[in-house]
């Protein structure tokens, strides 16, 4: 019998070169796995059933590569994509790992660094466009401070805005048709990062010259690092029409950025996220920005990649079961029961509606008596996820 949790192209599962290609190095330890070439990573992802592969500019082309080396690398990568059928839905620029960006890229106090960051981003956008990417992500890993003595946040906001406005015009001028997606994170590697949450990014986008071109790329771990509910951030982005991309992984609360396998820790939160994405019909990539554990060998990295996709599909099936569960749906109907008596005050405002509502006498004591069976409903969700429903 066919495995119903086998990924298929329509699921749009993607990984970055930096994810399955992670060598297990961390701030306290050296690499424990051999580095894989971009071509090897493409074939690995094809073997485990992924739909696409994403990259930072220098994941693919080393920063000091000559034009001839760049051509050979990109040509080999294109052949691997053709051989495997994988695509490149998203690309991004590394504006954080090089020493030149130690005080930020677009928000560096040094105008030459800001200009270099723009140059690097334009070249990265060119590379992404050449390989078919339609979404370009900006994560400002160094856009922040450790001390507010040295940088004015209003200057930083202005510089960041100017950079994005410039790159939007570049995108238009070259006819790339890309959408830009901004990725928030509260801290790490800087002590404090500017625009630390998805909500902050949404507010900032409204100040740009081309807000229609710019959305967000929320990440599970990044919102949870701030102690926030990730699904709520995703819902806000969706409601604003700005969910252009999404990074899936897992995290154990407000700690360092753990980037664990999707669903490996916070199963209930992952369920409600998957349920939301499937309920609203999100059609973009499901990108796994996660890393295998440092204890993993090469084969276990494959198990990690398969596990991310398999968990998503299992939770998708559970979301279907939630919608089909008559007891759960009966409770939801009871919770949201509406006798229709308030419809006269809903919808578009009018003076008549406002005056009628002001004059109405509510039985506050009776309203306060109505409880909601959230304990019972939540227990049914737990039983559903534990496989006893």
Structure, explained:
This protein is of the alpha/beta class. It folds into 2 domains: 9-317, Divalent-metal-dependent TIM barrel enzymes (TIM Barrel, Alpha-Beta Barrel), CATH 3.20.20; 326-386. Helix content is 47%, strand content 9%. The protein has 15 helices and 10 strands. It has helices at 17-20, 38-48, 57-60, 67-84, 111-130, 153-173, 198-205, 220-225, 230-239, 267-280, 298-324, 326-335, 351-359, 364-369, 374-386; strands at 13-16, 52-56, 90-92, 135-139, 144-145, 179-183, 192-193, 214-216, 247-248, 286-288. The strands form 2 sheets. Strands 8-6-4-3-2-1-10-9 form an 8-stranded parallel beta sheet. A two-stranded antiparallel ribbon has the order 5-7. Strand 3, helix 5 and strand 4 form a beta-alpha-beta unit. Helix 2 packs parallel to helix 4 (67-84) and helix 10 packs across helix 11 (298-324). It is globular, with a radius of gyration of 23 Å. The protein starts with 12 loop residues before the first strand and ends with a helix. The model has no long low-confidence stretch (mean pLDDT 97).
Entry summary:
The chain is α/β, with parallel strands linked by helices and 389 residues long. The protein has 15 helices and ten strands.
Please state roughly what percent of the residues sit in beta strands, choosing from under 5%, 5-15%, 15-25%, 25-35%, 35-45% or over 45%.
5-15%
Q: And the CATH topology of the largest domain?
A: TIM Barrel
Assign the CATH superfamily of the largest domain: Divalent-metal-dependent TIM barrel enzymes
Number of helical segments with 4 or more residues: 15
Strand neighbour order, sheet with most strands: 8-6-4-3-2-1-10-9
């Amino acid at each position: 019998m066919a495995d119903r949790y086998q990924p298929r192209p329509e699921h749009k599962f993607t990984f970055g070169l930096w994810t399955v290609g992670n060598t297990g190095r961390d701030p306290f330890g050296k690499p424990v796995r051999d580095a894989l070439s971009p071509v090897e990573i493409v074939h690995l992802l094809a073997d485990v059933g992924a739909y696409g592969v994403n990259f930072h500019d220098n994941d693919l082309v080393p920063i000091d590569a000559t034009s001839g080396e760049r051509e050979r690398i990109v040509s080999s990568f294109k052949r691997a994509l053709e051989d495997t059928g994988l695509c490149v839905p998203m690309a991004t620029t590394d504006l954080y790992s090089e020493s030149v960006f130690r005080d930020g890229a677009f928000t560096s106090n040094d105008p030459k660094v800001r200009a270099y960051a723009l140059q690097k981003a334009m070249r990265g956008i060119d590379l992404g466009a050449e390989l078919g990417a339609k979404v370009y992500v900006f994560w400002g890993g160094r856009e922040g401070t450790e001390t507010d003595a040295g940088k004015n946040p209003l200057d930083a906001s202005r510089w960041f805005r100017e950079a994005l406005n410039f790159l939007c015009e570049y995108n238009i001028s070259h006819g790339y048709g890309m959408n830009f997606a901004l990725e928030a994170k509260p801290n790490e590697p800087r002590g404090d990062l500017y625009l630390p949450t998805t909500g902050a990014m949404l507010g900032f986008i409204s100040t740009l010259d081309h807000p229609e071109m710019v959305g967000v790329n929320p990440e599970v771990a990044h919102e949870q690092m701030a102690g926030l509910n990730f699904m709520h951030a995703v819902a806000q982005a969706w409601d604003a029409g700005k969910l252009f991309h999404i990074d899936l992984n897992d995290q154990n609360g407000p700690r360092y950025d753990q980037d664990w396998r999707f669903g490996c820790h916070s199963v209930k939160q992952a369920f409600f996220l998957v349920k939301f994405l499937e309920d609203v019909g999100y059609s973009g990539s499901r990108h796994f920005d996660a890393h295998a554990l440092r204890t993993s060998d090469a084969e276990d990295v494959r198990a990690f990649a398969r596990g991310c996709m398999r968990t998503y599909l299992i939770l998708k099936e559970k979301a279907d079961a939630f919608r089909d569960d008559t007891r759960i749906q009966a409770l939801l109907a009871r919770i949201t029961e509406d006798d229709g008596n308030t419809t006269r005050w809903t919808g578009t405002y009018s003076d008549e509606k406002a005056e009628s509502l002001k004059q109405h006498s509510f039985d506050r004591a009776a309203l306060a008596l109505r409880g909601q069976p959230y304990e019972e409903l939540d227990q049914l969700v737990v039983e559903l996820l534990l496989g006893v429903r």
